[in-house]
Amino acid sequence: MKFKKNSILKCQCILFLIFCYAFLSADTFSESIFDENDFAFRGIDLGLSEPLPVDISFCIADLKFDGHNLKICEFGEGCHSKFRGFNKLYGTGKAWELFWIYLSQFNLPIWYVGSPNNQKFKDEISYDTFVECGGRLIDSFGSLKKNRNFLNWVGHGYIENKQSISNYKAIICVKNSNEGVKEFREKFPNVLIWDLGAASYVNSKYRTTLLFEDDELAKYRPKAWLVKREPISPYSRAYDQSATDYYQVYVQSATEQILADKKINYYVIKPVNGTMGQGILFVKDKDLQKTLMLVLKKGKKTKNKDKNLAYWVTNKSNHCLVEEFAASKTVVVDGIPYDPTMRVIFVLCYDNNVPRIDILGAYWKTPPLALDEVGRFVDKHKSHSAKQKYSALPVDPEDYQKVTEIMQQFMPKIYAKMLGISIR
Description:
globular
């Protein structure tokens, strides 16, 4: 009887593992999902029934450029960037100064809603240029709706041609969107509120990945895989051992699919909703499965000296991104070689049914270590705003011109996807 019982258990385990492989092969990677833990957007769902008629979105992009080709690592909102590197090279508030000058071409008054009225903030946003370009600070949408100058200027909200920015009465800048945006937009349809077109995409690494799922656009983005974290097994509630086996098989299957899809020396693991470089890991191909065993397990109560690995203990996202590693051209300063990341500052503008991109500036962000220094791979290739001597480097004019030309080729198509419109 004991022999029969053990045989039955072995058979059950074999059947269970066969089930795991069959299930995982179809369900390891997600293609169309939405989860509130994954997409912590700055902003709200405006419930738009139709595409935006016009838009201005102030954005940044971190990219790798090898001298000929570029790959977008991630996007971000300009209003949430500190521009530390750009400030260091060109002066505090320079990026904002360029943005205000850009907006001045429309000859419209600008209200910055929800802004702190202190000197530090004014320095950061180049306040003098802001005022010269028709800018005013105001604390809230509530105050703006009662502001006599604003009401006299915008009138009753009538607009003759919604597709032309020149027909609007004002531009509203708001750093942190809330429900007031939707209400305000309904009350004043002749006022243009910035960032509505791009915000929900540039704040999600997953949605950014989706934008490049096109044969023509895929070459501008590292190959990426969205992997579910800690999938629920129908056996896990009743059989602890089966749940453990299921998880191990799941991670093994996910790893094998990634390696089979594109085998490279290094991969980058990212949270889909992370900021400030948190949780980003650089992993050798041979260590991918071991690392995913830790990353894909939510709430694993173990301490780790690597803060980026420890980040995944508390991360509530149901997914993570695995990307191919991409390097930039080696940039040498004072004989010191770096693999930097280029940060590009740009504006997306949709006016008269034409989406376009205008580049405002760029600089190189460097990793803490040079390529010829002794240290970890991640410290030689992951850029961040550390206090090393060369944390920010200017971009060579030829490189700047080349990157500008490439982005002007494909970004209008990416922007059109954000807006939900089609272009030729």
